[in-house]
Write the structure tokens for this entry.
Amino acid sequence: MSTPHDASTLAIRFNEPLPRRGKPLAEVVARVERDVIADSNKLYHPMYMGHQVSPPVPAAVWMEMVTAAVNNSTAVWEMSPTATVIEARVIRWLCELAGLPPESGGTLTTGGTEATFTALLAARGAALPDAWSDGISANPPVLVYGEQAHYAVTRAAGELGLGMKNAIAVPTRDYRMDVRALRETLDRLQREGRRVMAVVATAGSTPTGSFDDLAAIGALCAERGHWFHVDAAHGGSALFSATHAKRLAGVSRASSIAWDPHKMMLMPLQAGVLLVRDERAMLDGAFAQKAPYLFHDAGADERVWDQGTRSFLCSRRADALKLWVALQRHGADGFGALYDRLCETTRALYEELEKRPDFETLHEPESNILCFRYIGRDADDAFNLRLRERWNRSGDGWITTTLLGGKRVLRVTMMNPRTTREHVARLVEGLARMASER
Ligand SMILES: *Cc1c(COP(=O)(O)O)cnc(C)c1O
């Protein structure tokens, strides 16, 4: 599933001077197969249950080649006549799925990190309209987020000049943001006369795939006039599923939403999305820049087609194309079924583990992520860490690990629709056998 070699061994393989002369294509291809692909992670293997990276949908993989060959850059419409309008169309579809109003809009991004950064930049523009020209003052507004949030959130606090001390974590309960604690935090900030730039909730958290209560948090933000950002990088694709969309109930209240098709829509990297409730927040708030050699001013009622006015990037891949092609090929319902299947396989693992005395689960899976521990034979943190390393080296499977509530846990993300109950049973039995060998 992965490589038996360590990083320095692999580095030696590629330790060579810059090739001065070209080689025959067949030779280069043979080397790619032997030296590159052979030791890459095999995400398409049904026993790979590691990180949140997809074994990509074939139609999207094929479209990658077309996108590269056509090579239209999507910062400005005149450089990408079809891709630009297709991007706008895909964004519109996703805004509608999320229940955002007609004045909503957004952009494709390189992923959830860029989407969240851009969302918070727009939030900064809303809170401090002069920040673009004057910089932020010595007393910046604060950013409030749940303690299980992805590091993209606190990273943005640093990048945006707020400073880490102005990023305030709210405790979680059962891995979800504790809404009472959020209310208390907001009350305290109000008493202290601090301004809140944004509240960030997570829909599909990285460690456990848990969903914050968006309806309650959204209501609280609406009541107090706070920017409400939803980091749905992982869980946004639940909106395709008739069964799981309810986990995002309340997302329609969001000021902005980060959503990664390169996670649960199984797009090849990279495909991220940022949706904003009012797209003027991006055109004027996030990126208040003029570039007369590139961007075109639009009339009052005219749409600005140039995506560069909404995006962190200048030269931009047409990542919307693979997403559009995959939606044409499989339809929204196809992606809903895919989402359901990955969750069902995770549920099967949960049920399998619950039956056994030698394992404990740390939570019920809300999506396709599950954290658990081996607890037979007085196994401790170090034992679980070693177990994971041995398992991954065995070639029988590949999983991850994290720290949860101070405990070392084994962590699985089901990203492969070809992973079945039999593979799940093989994982549990394999781990148990390996643990009993010691
Ligand atoms: C993966 C993830 C991110 C980061 O997204 P990238 O696409 O890796 O930049 C942010 N938030 C959550 C909840 C995630 O799961």
In short: The mean pLDDT is 95. The CA atoms of residues 59 and 364 lie 33 Å apart.
